[in-house]
Amino acid sequence: MLNTLLVSKFNALALLTPPQIAEYDALVPAAIVAITALMVILVDVFHKVDTDRSYLATFSAIGLGVTILSCWMLWDNTLDTAAFSGMLYLDKYTLLFAVLGSAAGILSMLMSPAYLKSHLMDRGEYYMLILFSVSGMIIIAGAADLLTFFVGFEVMSIPIYCLAGFLRKDSRSAEAAMKYFILGAFSAALMLYGIALLYGLTGTTNLEYIGLHLTEILANEASAGASIGMVVLAVLLILSGFAFKVASVPFHVWTPDVYTGSPTPGVGFMATAIKAGAFAALVRVFTISFDATMLRGGFFGYGWVDVFLFIAAASVILGNLVAITQNNVKRMLAYSSIAHAGYILVGFVAASARPEFFLLNDAVIFYLITYSFGTLGAFGVLAWFGRRGESAETYDELNGLGFKYPMMGLCMGIFMFSSAGIPPTAGFVGKLYVFRAAVDVGAETGEFAFIGLAILAVLTSVAGVYYYLRVLVHMYMKKATREIRPVANNGAKWAIAICAVLTLYLGILPGQVLGWAREAIVDFQGAPASVQQVIELGEQELEALEAAE
């Protein structure tokens, strides 16, 4: 009771404390992206009708480049506490995801102008939608309060609903937007109801205070019996919202239709930046507010970690098996993204089993980075061949294109090898780290469930090699059935080449990016005391490594 009164008093005082100048740094990355979006709208107003708008992609990419530069300048100037009375964190974890989202936005927009022109939809709104979505992603990565998180979640999501239906003259795009919007609104409502339940139980929406209050409630035997059901329901509702956004089973049904109907460069952004943002918030919310040690129970005794364990297993099985049966490459990549969500959850489950394993989340971050460049590149190649009425989306339509367009064939080969987890590509290293994390946790805890999950993920990953290599078989070993005219431009070519180079670089020399991922996890703010002790040990290890160098 005393603890509750002290927290309430601290909240009241915090509201009266004006923000310090340093706190405004927390707004800088998201603000730069939002201002760029507004400038794109303003410039587009004065654009001459029926003239090329490709320069808007370059302008938007420059704005995101400035965002990346700001993150680099803030990297060693993060805040130790949440800014604006506990609403927003500024730590290396937030900054790394801001860089990832901005990079995905840059590459996606550079791939877009020729594709949009071919589909008679060369409009400035396209770039504005991506920019606002990136700003929302940055907000949820640094959210310290569920209200901040939900606002950022919707700022990230609503532009993507519009982006899915951007090709207004294509019935598949309208269908994709409608399905995505309806299911997305439903999942957001579930999440909001879970947030409301937590507020009713704890009297706060601050992530750290929710964790403190839930610990107090569940430690009190008199109130725990009546409250445990509400806590579990709230956690499951919030979990379901996250599961929808990362496209994991059983909230995956929207994925294949939305990926098929949406503009191909936009799908690349949707499949990477949106998934990365959702995972960033997932780690933040569940680590800070729902300490796994206080919500024990379930099949294996790990509480909500058990739920994610089953979701991960179901995602890798369904995603890979259904992908094998697809004839449309975009649908194949959609089911593949479901499987990849399962692989990422393998690492998250391992890192969440106990507080001492928290630093294993660096494997999750690294996997998201490797997955982003490989998947963006693959959709970029499909967009390259995506002329209106002549697109190459099925396996048969890709016949012979590898020899006819050697650069695109080589890049697609790199992306498919990476997705399949074949060395020396980034996908191999990413999978190696998340699978090893699960095996290490299984060995430490003596719980075979984690090792079994890793074995299942490896077996399904081997099955996935079939449908990835099938793309290359058609591109190099089948005769062309019709003439394909690519919607080529230099920006798209450079973006695809950059994705290919980074996919190889991360597979051959992953050390630098792994170091950034470890720094981001070690600088993670708001963690409970049990996790904070592990973070301090991680800081000491990093300092020792720097001293040795």
Give the secondary structure arrangement, pairings included.
Blueprint: H1 2-16, H2 28-45, H3 54-74, H4 83-86, H5 92-110, H6 113-118, H7 125-141, H8 146-164, H9 171-202, H10 207-219, H11 221-245, H12 255-261, H13 264-289, H14 304-324, H15 329-352, H16 361-384, H17 401-404, H18 406-420, H19 426-445, H20 448-477, H21 490-508, H22 511-522, H23 529-548
Structure description:
Helix 7 (125-141) runs antiparallel to helix 8 and helix 18 (406-420) runs parallel beside helix 21 (490-508). The model is unreliable at 1-16 (pLDDT under 50). The protein has 549 residues and is mostly helical. It starts with a helix and ends with a helix. It has 23 helices and no strands. It has helices at 2-16, 28-45, 54-74, 83-86, 92-110, 113-118, 125-141, 146-164, 171-202, 207-219, 221-245, 255-261, 264-289, 304-324, 329-352, 361-384, 401-404, 406-420, 426-445, 448-477, 490-508, 511-522, 529-548. It is globular, with a radius of gyration of 23 Å. Its EC number is 7.1.1.-. One of its GO terms (biological process) is ATP synthesis coupled electron transport. The chain crosses the membrane at residues 26-43, 55-75, 95-114, 126-144, 150-168, 180-202, 222-246, 267-287, 299-321, 333-353, 365-386, 407-428, 448-469, 490-508. This is NADH-quinone oxidoreductase subunit N.
